[in-house]
Amino acid sequence: MAERSKTADTVSAIGIDEIITGNLSKYPALPPGYYGQPKKGHLLFDACFESGNLGRVDHVTEFEYDLFIRPDTCNPRFRVWFNFTVENVKESQRVIFNIVNFSKTKSLYRDGMAPMVKSTSRPKWQRLPPKNVYYYRCPDHRKNYVMSFAFCFDREEDVYQFAYCYPYTYTRLQHYLDNLQKRNMDYFCREFLGCTVQQRQLDLLTITNPVNLRPGVQQKVVFITARVHPGETPSSFVCQGIIDFLVSPHPIAKVLRDHLVFKVAPMLNPDGVYLGNYRCSLMGFDLNRHWVDPSPWAHPTLHSIKQLIIEMYNNPKISLEFYIDIHAHSTMMNGFMYGNIFEEEERFQRQAIFPKLLCQNAEDFSFSSTSFNRDAVKAGTGRRFLGGLLDDTSYCYTLEVSFYSYIVGDTTFAVPYTEETYMKLGRNVARTFLDYYRLNTISERPLAPLSSTWKEKASSYRYGYNQSPGNNQAASKPQKKIQESPKENIHSP
Q1: Which tens digit of pLDDT belongs to each residue from 142-172?
Q2: Is the pLDDT score of 473 beyond 60?
């Protein structure tokens, strides 16, 4: 790498996080001492667009640039997501881009992950070749971890876009939901549940046979949420895969709609998504740590979702059977789940059934990576809080999917995820409810019994639970469903 200027070293010493406050807007990265109009080959960087993130660029040489991620708004701790464009390139211009201020040290870039790229003439996202990507601890940047990638621009007229992973914007979701609404399906309903701080809408979808929504009918509800962490874009593709399957004419989808009510909130943090944050909302909150007592003004989407869930919990005609919150993981392969730990061994083992069935249906889902915990740091998450609130017929999971790839079978061969394979995992999640409820009228088969291996694993988890300290959220669970209004109950579950 080229030697950096004393100015750049000084900036690194005082800390770049205090300097970066916004995204670059059509910023020309000019050589030091150059003051004229940008020439062809003087790269023009931009991140002032929806879900964009790039806070600063340092021109090291004509072949090398240091790039700085803008921290999440109102929270300098998180710097992972990037999404920016480059234009004014020369044909065959070769460059090295160094992303120099990641807030995480561990990364799938160590395991072959590569940034995404597309251009005006090639609008489909693709991964860069892993051989052109390097992840290392750099002495020039306070020994921070740096991800460098080499790239050759081949078309002068193109605008090139680079991103951490496949982007999935708030606008894309709105177009997708608008198109679903236009199909006028009687088993699909889109509701406006509330507004974000910046007045973007929180959508709630209900997918079921309308017969199930008649007054007095007993409902079995599956509640699914995604994108509480805005930079975890794979969760939106998985969620869309679930929705696509459930609204499809597939015979299994019809059976599921006849027997279950699916509630889906596909984007819990629209402001963070729009702003290009990685983990936080507009006001700098990690919403997935505020389920215990969400504020109607600081965490309005979370407050609305929690209020709805407690309404359903208090309704004797509704059995809230599943809560699944979809995320993406930055250091692990495959799809997998996190579940809760319960003192009752039977309940704990029943909780393992769904991920075990999903493992049978999805080649990219890892049952061995699925784990159950009650870490104190996770106490404010949806999975942990609702696991302590709901009764013993309800199961709450975090569904994680890798930002990068999955391992095929017993091999070590990593298959990079695509938008389509993320959505395929979603379709397989939906199909697994057929097996779980034994609704398979097409190919009858008994529910797989728990293996002795799993029983041993469950016992070891239970033993670890009895020994580990932490807040027992289950202790605050209501003893029975109460008929007070949600407003009275919302802060004292």
Answers
A1: 888 999 999 999 999 999 999 999 999 999 9
A2: no
Q: Indicate the SS3 state at residue 488.
A: helix
Q: Give SS3 for 405.
A: strand
Is 111 a residue whose pLDDT tops 60? yes
C-alpha span between 66 and 300 (Å, rounded): 37
- The token duo for 451 is 């293996």
SS3 of 8-58: the string is: HHHHHHHCHHHCCCCCCCCEECCCCCCCCCCCCCCCEEECCCCCCECCEEE
| Residues 55, 297: Cα–Cα separation, whole Å | 28
| Per annotation, catalytic residue among 62, 346, 400, 456 | 400
Residue 445 exposed, middle or buried by CB count within 10 Å (0-12, 13-18, 19+): exposed
Residue 470 has pLDDT above 70, yes or no: no
What is the average per-residue pLDDT within 363-389?
86
Whole-prediction pTM value?
0.87
CA 327, CA 229: separation in Å to the nearest integer? 7
Burial class (CB in 10 A: 0-12, 13-18, 19+), 409: exposed
Tokens representing 424? 């395929």
Active site residue 311: no
